[in-house]
């Protein structure tokens, strides 16, 4: 079976200059967990997943203390208004993943499944020969395939 048989064709994408606020709203509206980020010609530049938008616990250097970090800066967990201000002024390109695995429509489906299971990528872009995004694959697509549902 080939990637083209299971992928969602023509997925929604984001431009690199979209703000994180715009991206977060689109994620909530569509209930997707991420979007490929593309240039004007539709070529893949990166990937923005929900995980990149949320603070995450990190160890404070030279200590055993954990604190929240967002976009490489320490944040107080009670300062949601400041996080929102950062969303309003930060472009997607500042936090998107740029090292993104990708597959082609004619690739074997097993290759895509291996990538989804062995990396932190949950939304696998499918690109054509010119690196333009033509589809997307998620772990849920494989569950649907296993259950025989589309």
From TrEMBL:
Limits of the CBS domain: 7-65, 96-150
Source taxon at top rank: Bacteria
Keywords: CBS domain
Gene3D superfamilies listed in its UniProt record: CBS-domain
Key word Transmembrane helix present: no
Protein name: CBS domain-containing protein
Species of origin: Thermus arciformis
Species classification: Bacteria, Thermotogati, Deinococcota, Deinococci, Thermales
């Amino acid at each position: 079976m080939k990637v083209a048989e299971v992928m969602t064709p023509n997925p929604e994408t984001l431009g690199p200059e979209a703000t994180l606020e715009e991206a977060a709203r689109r994620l909530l509206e569509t209930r997707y967990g991420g979007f490929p980020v593309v240039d004007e010609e539709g070529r893949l530049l990166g990937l923005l997943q929900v995980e990149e938008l949320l603070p995450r616990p990190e160890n404070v250097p030279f200590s055993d203390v954990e604190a929240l970090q967002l976009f490489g800066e320490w944040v107080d967990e009670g300062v949601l208004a400041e996080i929102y201000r950062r969303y309003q002024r930060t472009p997607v390109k500042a936090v998107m993943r740029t090292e993104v695995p990708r597959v082609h429509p004619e690739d074997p489906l097993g290759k895509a499944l291996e990538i989804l299971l062995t990396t932190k990528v949950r939304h696998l872009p499918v690109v054509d020969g010119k690196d333009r995004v033509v589809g997307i694959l998620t772990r849920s697509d494989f569950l649907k395939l296993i259950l025989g549902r589309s």
